[in-house]
Amino acid sequence: MANPMHPERQEGYEWPVGVYLFFGGLGGALITLSYIFHFFAATVPMIRLATLSGLVLFAIAGVFLIFFDLERPLNAIYSLNNVTKSGISWDVVLIILNFVFGILFVIPEFSNYSIFSGLASLLAPYQVFFGLIAAISGFLFPIISAGLLAAPAAIPLWHTPALPLLYLITSFSLAIAYLGALFSPVGTLYTTFLGGIFALTALTFAISLAYLEHTHNGPIEAKEGMHRMLKTPRFILLYPVVGVLFPLVLSAYLFFTGATLTWAMLALTIALFLGGFAARNCVVNNGIETYPWPY
Amino acid sequence: MTRYGMVIDLRSCVGCQACSAACALENQTPYWSNKWRTTVKDIQVGQYPNTGRHFVPTICMHCKEPACMTVCPTKATFKTDDGFILVNYDTCLGCKACIAACPYGARYVYSKEDVQQDKEIYGDNAQHTKVHIDKCTFCQDRIARGMEPACVSTCPTTSRMVGDLDDPTSAVAKAVSSGLAKPLRPDLGTEPRVYYIY
């Protein structure tokens, strides 16, 4: 008998998981960047805003994870009992670490507020340590989250190391663009932010092409998922066009010509945000295909 | 310990869906939402005049290396001493990671609406009182009573066979050891305990 079964879409992840991946990755990257900036020429407001934004985004990610997608959210407590084996449990631990140590890291930055001054002076000697834990967990979060999707061999569209790598890189390009738009539309760090966006978007472009190649030459389920994505006008417009090519061309032009446009950072940020969310949402929605018949 | 396995002979399956119905009645699966622990796929292939029609019963494979168990964050999916893969309804989070991880599409969400419907239909005898991810249990309670799973005992063409894979005299073990019955997607390394003859 020839292979009679066609790929079938399974019940599974929906848009809340896309939101979770988007906000969680961005939040983790912001906290990691704020820790790195702490050692360089970053201003206190930048560290405050980067960390607090990261924490808020992580909180939103957690809320979406727990209340919008889980069928029985209160049972999440049991996941702390399976940290050695489950990727989701690692994610829960990373969120907790990031949240707790992110708060401990940022409090000393508010030492000039009388309400925080006592606590800030108490925590200040350990700020670098707290920041390190928050930064490591923020850095690992995108890798573990996307690694969780990429782990099951049953879903070839996701079963590639390119997925965690792509998620990590785009999370950091989003975070850099976000900070660039807020703090340095034409300021001293303009070129640094622009260079970062260009480098990470170029990497995103290259890895996206590799991903396309992987699915094109992959099993039938992967092709099915990718074809469905490529037939979705919203995805095509928001990810390859607006989310990758536009930022790549604009950041390359500005970076290599030295031109300064006041609207550029904001435009790059909006484009990267739209593309980043579309990519996560579409990948999550289009992956779950099964094809159990033996090849 | 008996290592139960199942062999499904696609050559004799007529696609009557009696197995689906028997399973639904035995285990109160949400047929009202078109969700089944076991069902028969009716697959038509080819183009006129060279056409074919195949019936492929699907079910949880109770894998030796279950991908669904590895990803479960709360250990709600567990393996019994007999090797059956079951779900602890009390600790299931409903995160759907197991649905995504299962290569055989054997799981579904027993949703809040399904639980309510189950209660309405079966009253105090309702088996599903909590939202959870549901799947085939290999009719463990029937096996414990020395009976065959509902899908096996109801099959009119005896397309489904169940038996001890470690007993060389059993029909199931013979079909597997002879190479006649083969597992689905052996390349995934899940080592299913349900085999197909085709």
Give a verbal description of the structure.
The complex is a heterodimer of chains A (295) and B (198). Chain A is mainly α. Chain A folds into two domains: 12-151; 156-295. Chain A has helices at residues 15-38, 44-69, 87-106, 114-123, 127-150, 162-183, 190-216, 220-230, 233-257, 264-286; strands at residues 8-9, 289-290. The mean pLDDT of chain A is 85. Chain B has one domain (4-197): 2-Layer Sandwich (Alpha-Beta Plaits). The model of chain B has no long low-confidence stretch (mean pLDDT 92). Chain B has helices at residues 18-27, 67-71, 97-101, 112-122, 140-144, 150-154, 171-177, and strands at residues 4-9, 39-47, 50-58, 77-79, 85-87, 108-110, 132-134, 160-164, 182-183, 194-197. The longest helix of chain B is centred in the middle third of the chain and has 11 residues, at 112-122. Chain B has seven helices and ten strands. Chain B has 198 residues and is an alpha+beta fold. Chain B is globular and about 45 Å long. In chain B, strand 2 (39-47) and strand 3 form a beta hairpin. At the A-B interface, helix 3 of A face strand 2, strand 3, helix 2, helix 3 and strand 9 of B.
